[in-house]
Amino acid sequence: xxxxxxxxxxxxxxxxxxxxxxxxxxxxxxxxxxxxxxxxxxxxxxxxxxxxxxxxxxxxxxxxxxxxxxxxxxxxxxxxxxxxxxxxxxxxxxxxxxxxxxxxx
Length: 105
What we know:
Low-confidence stretches: none
Shape: globular
Radius of gyration: 12 Å
CATH superfamily of the domain at 21-81: LysM domain
CATH class of the domain at 21-81: Alpha Beta
Number of helices: 2
Order of helices and strands: EEHHE
Strand content: 5-15%
Number of strands: 3
Structural class: little secondary structure
Distance between the termini: 16 Å
């Protein structure tokens, strides 16, 4: 996460280029996002009130980037699940782990 302060997403609701499905934790905080056809990373970040660079940082271990999205991809929204949430076209990549990262669940 080097240099990025953890951001807590807030779902502003579906919109053009960000119509995917948000998964919430028990407290109602968005923790994952399933990409819909036509979604664009910057619009997803805006919908969730987080920085696009932050989304890339917390998804970098399990996928290439949030700029290369495919319907059905899962984006991680929680810095505490960098190692366990996210995929690209159903595949989980094994990229280098950022350091430091928050405790993982």
